[in-house]
Structures are given as C-alpha cells and as structure tokens.
C-alpha cells in the first residue's frame, strides 16, 4: 500500500482544539492556511498557551472555517458562545480575559501564523500507526486522545509506526525531500515535545509518569535505521518540515500520495 495523506488537522487559534479538513492550502510562507493564525497573549507579550496555562485545555472550541466562526464552550456554561473570528475579536478577547482572570489580547498573523518553530514553518508530520503505537503505551489513552496531545498537522496512512522517522536525515546538516500530492517538502528534524502531551487534553491534568514512560518506550521502539545521533533525548515525536515555496497555488488533499524523493 502506498503512503497517503490520511488526515489534515488545523489549529486556527494556537493551543485551542483543532479542526479536521479535507484539503488545505499551503501559503507562500510554507505554513498551512488558517493554522495557528491566531494566538492569545498576556499584557507582557507572552503566549497564553498550553505550555504556560493548563487551564486552556478545559476550553472546547469548534471552528467553521468557511464562515470564519468559533463556537466556544466555557467550563460551567450550559451553552456555546459563537464568535466571528474577524468581526468579534473584542468580544472574544473579553470572554477569554474573564476566563483566565487576567487581560489577554488576540493577535492575528495570516501570513505565517504563530508556530512554535519559527524557522521551520511547514506542517508537522506523523503517521496514524505511530499514534496508535504510542497510545498503546498508556492504558486508557485512545488514539484520538493521543492525536490531540501531539497536535500534528499531517497524518500519513498506509505505513508502519515511526515511518515518518525516514523524513529527516542521519546528519543534522542534511535534509530529506518528500512530496505530498504536488507539494514538495523538506524534512528537517524530529519534533521536540513540550509539557502539553503529558496532560489530559480535556482536563489539563498531568500524568507525572508520562514523559518517563514515553522516553523509555520511544528508545525501545526506535527503528534500527534511524541515526541515534539525532536523539540527544527521546522525548521527540513527529517531524518538523519546510514546504518548498511555489508561485503557483499549492493544495493538499486527503488521499494524496506521499513519496520520499531524496
């Protein structure tokens, strides 16, 4: 079976729930359109995100990208509040400030968004089999819950677990070229994980043993063709990428074939 693009997940507001789409446009910056387009900041200019504020996990968000709307469920509320992402920024900011208990600002960057890795702006890549394998390390954690913990953009089907570890080179100064549909990418490095995967994606409660278990299992299951030199530690999963810039509109679509080309 040929590797293929099985899922596309966008996260319109950084650290909020994602939205699964059938296709996504690759912007000239190399980012996916709508992904991390918005981010929340405090008055000091720091991100208000899952790394700093576990409380954010308790918010439930549904996005209708065609309408540019967000349906937000605040804990303890019986109904969703609907905001237009462009027209209701002030109302949304006020609601979020009340929720966090301090003043926040909602900022927008429709060119490259607010990725964690500001040098490698391409989508993060993982395989469905990897998520299935990693979920099996943690009793009671489903594949969907692991997907929400890892928050990768592109999910590859038709491949074994950790197939995506082929998408970075054994040498840190080299890269691997691959194609999804008609879009070319460069795989750069395994993605270093933060505190977010250790937490329940609904409650924000952390599993104190998560990282230790993850590191032990990741090292034990690392494919034998992967250069261990790329792992100064084993709390890494998925691949950071750079999308090749093209003057033509580039679209990704579910079902696109995936091929390593160099």
From TrEMBL:
Superkingdom classification of source: Bacteria
Record's protein name: MOSC domain-containing protein
Question: Entry's InterPro entries?
Answer: MoCF_Sase_C, MOCOS_middle, Pyrv_Knase-like_insert_dom_sf
Residues of the MOSC domain: 89-261
Q: Name one GO molecular function term.
A: pyridoxal phosphate binding
Organism of derivation: Tolypothrix tenuis PCC 7101
């Amino acid at each position: 079976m040929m590797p293929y693009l099985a899922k596309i997940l966008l996260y319109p507001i950084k650290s909020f729930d994602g939205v699964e789409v059938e296709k996504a446009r690759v912007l000239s910056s190399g980012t996916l359109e709508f992904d991390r387009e918005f981010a929340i900041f405090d008055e000091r200019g720091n991100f208000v995100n899952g790394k700093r504020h576990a409380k954010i996990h308790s918010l439930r968000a549904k996005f209708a990208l065609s309408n540019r709307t967000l349906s937000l469920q605040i804990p303890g509320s019986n109904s969703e509040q609907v905001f237009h992402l462009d027209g209701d920024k002030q109302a949304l900011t006020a609601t979020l400030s009340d929720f966090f208990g301090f003043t926040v600002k909602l900022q927008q960057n429709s060119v490259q968004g607010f990725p964690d890795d500001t040098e490698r702006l391409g989508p993060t890549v993982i395989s469905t089999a990897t998520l299935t394998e990693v979920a099996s390390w943690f009793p009671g954690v489903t594949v969907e819950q692991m997907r929400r913990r890892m928050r990768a953009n592109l999910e590859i089907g038709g491949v074994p677990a950790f197939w995506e570890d082929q998408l970075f080179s054994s040498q840190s100064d080299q890269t691997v070229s691959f194609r999804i549909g008609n879009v070319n990418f460069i795989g750069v490095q395994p993605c270093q994980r933060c505190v977010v995967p250790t937490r329940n994606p609904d409650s924000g409660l952390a599993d104190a043993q998560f990282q230790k278990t993850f590191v032990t299992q990741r090292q034990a299951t690392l494919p034998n063709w992967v250069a261990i030199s790329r792992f100064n530690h084993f709390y890494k999963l998925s691949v950071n990428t750079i999308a090749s810039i093209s003057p033509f509109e580039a679209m990704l679509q579910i079902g696109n074939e995936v091929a390593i080309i160099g």
